[in-house]
Amino acid sequence: MHQYTLAELSQGLAAGHYSSVELTQHFLDRIARLDPQLNSFISVTAEQALAQAAAADQRRQRGEATALTGLPLAHKDIFCTQGVRTSCASRMLDNFVAPYDAAVVERLQAAGMVMLGKTNMDEFAMGSSNETSFYGPVRNPWDLSRVPGGSSGGSAAAVAARLAPAATGTDTGGSIRQPAALCQLTGLKPSYGRVSRWGMIAFASSLDQAGPMTQTAADAALLLQAMAGHDARDSTSVERPVPDYQAALTQPLQGLRIGLPTAFRNPGLDPAVARLVDAAIAELVSQGARTVDVDLPHMDWSVPAYYVIAPAEASSNLSRFDGVRYGHRCQQPTDLLDLYSRSRAEGFGAEVQRRIMIGTYALSAGYYDAYYRQAQKIRRLIAEDFARAFTQCDIIAGPTSPCTAFPLQARQDDPVAMYLSDIYTIAVNLAGIPAISLPCGQDQGLPVGLQLIGPYWSEERLLQVAHRYQQACPWHRQMPSSFA
Ligand code: GLN
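^ thats the input. predicted complex w/ glutamine below
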């Protein structure tokens, strides 16, 4: 059963080939047997999953099933889940059991989906390799000596190894798309405001967005349909009707204008990745699309601007973890200041502390104008670059990641090398626009991702183009051999 997509499993459930309880048990068995090699789950919620599956089967018997009812999935451990540990992969929240469900969790549960467990990630979603987790690194199922990407590395590895048919992720600077690329999945970062951030532990609030991580674009459409929509509890959630994402999928590509920015061809790009991305674009052209050159003149400033803005927001968001209300508290504090500083020093890992320090510095009096304000100006210029490009093209295509999955520990001691993993994804978050990564082949057995970027609210278009590509080039059908 695990070789099937969500859409296929949905049909299998509807046809009565198996029950949700059987399906759920199958994935739980795979997790128990295979996850020790990957470390993709922080918590497995077997009992709750089987109860949800039994409820889904009953719902189906009553004739009340939706397309998602009874389908299992895994949630990134950044989403609050009622009664279940929600750790954000940090020692700080190792003992935190959320008192409520995040909006995303709530919506997928309301559709009848079954949660298998919570996936591993970089601590507080800060990283590109899943090595900053308090619970240890995740391994890439395509090559266990390599990283799965991050920060949604657990979600990516779990779906790639078919320990779950789909998972949720979050993307602040690339954390859905980059691990999707490195693990041969489809990962969609929706427009900012499309999916509610309520109950999603905040990293950089003006950039964070939740999205689906699936085998196919059709599955991403299915999940986004249920995830998207207005939520009054998130003040940045946008009141805008959710289109029928399935309906657009099969539209032909005739006349589609694909923008190719020169900025996506910098010297850091692995030539093998470039070749596969070019071949994927050629496939889209053979289906009726045409290419146009576009200019994104401020792309080079996206990583520097992000590493001011994201840490600034993180330093503010993470100030709530003070050892007083919830989370880790140090032993026998001598006074209040000692309680704060020791709890935080013990609870946060090195990368999180680095970000808090950068952010606090950038926001402090005297430096605010020199760093934070400048970064915000760059952010505006980048958003304007994209808006200008989208007067000439419908979507922009390029690589998701400059290279394939790198070996564990290869970049751990070099934060700047790690930060450059997101060189093609970060600008998208700064602009707030949607983008998708989809598999476009392999180099030496390691997956490569094609990134498609669109203007605000173009999720339908991105899913359509990705789906059309996947109809012709079914890379998503391959499974890593030791997990087949
Ligand atoms: N790798 C980037 C960072 O470390 C982006 C992470 C993310 O999207 N959550 O901040």
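The CA atoms of residues 364 and 372 lie 9 Å apart.
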